[in-house]
Amino acid sequence: MSELGTLLSDTVGRLLGDLVTKEALEEAERGTWPERLWSALEESGLTLPLVPETQGGAGGTWADAHVVVRAAGRHAAPVPLPETIVAGWLLATAGLEVPLGPLTLAPVRTRDRLTLARAGSGWRLSGTAARVPWGGAAGHVVALAEAEGGPAVALVARGGARVTPELNLAREPRDTLAFAATPVVAMASAPAGLPADVIVVRGAMARAAQMAGALESLLEQSVRYATERRQFGRPIGSFQAIQHSLAVLAGHVAASGIAAEQAFRAADRGDGRFETAAAKVRAGEAAGIGAGIAHQAHGAIGFTYEHSLHFSTRRLWSWRAEFGSESRWAAELGRAVAARGADRLWPDLTAR
Asked: Domains along the chain?
């Protein structure tokens, strides 16, 4: 880990540990924006790790950003921190100024399309994007749209779209934004070589890291409960069946964590699409198995709203379907392997 990565890791762990409490999560689920948490993240320089220092960011790498995104998942941070990190990178890559405040991305589904049209000396954005994370709460939306035959990056201020509020299973905002010739704050052509679905790719990478962090939380909570809960005169963690289940969970935590980290490192080397697909598949599979083990270990108490376990499991169940499910990414991996041919499979895997 780089010096910046270590600094970011220490800072984000301490800050989220102090401010993301059970009470704060419950308030966020009732629709209260956690202003204190967001202000602390922004003041600590955790929201723009990929933005150059000349533009007010930390000037870090994707590997540096990984520690922040993973911590956000581990603590179930109820703010669009990963979305802001990716949006800031996209704006900076396009040469646009990155505003302060929470950012979100659109569209987040490959079937949604946005278009930009000239209007005098400016541009206007049209189209509908569904399931946009914190679409109504973010200060700005960073959109990838078609403009005169080519992809472009546009910045739209809050209030520029008609918002239909929606929630995922974890009660995180996933709003539908309808743009109708909405004026944009800024616009630039997308850099050459940027994939048309770059938001989906980078979003999937971020969700994989968040799931890896949430799985870490599941393991920590399950081990602690198995140590404290006593049955038949001894901790339930001393029973072989419980030990075996927790060992299986630990294996999934380790595998998903390594896969997510490798995806971020691959992004620093280039596209990283293959590694992102593998990480999203691995984390998605681990989410289903890991959540089941954690709830089994906790028994009935784990299914109550009063216990904190559900803050992680509901996010895992939600995040595995966002920016492409494991089946969607598995199909892409399969197509890529088939196109390369059987003889290239092992060399391609070992090269990574």
From this structure: 1-79 (1.10.540.10), 102-194 (2.40.110.10), 198-350 (1.20.140.10)
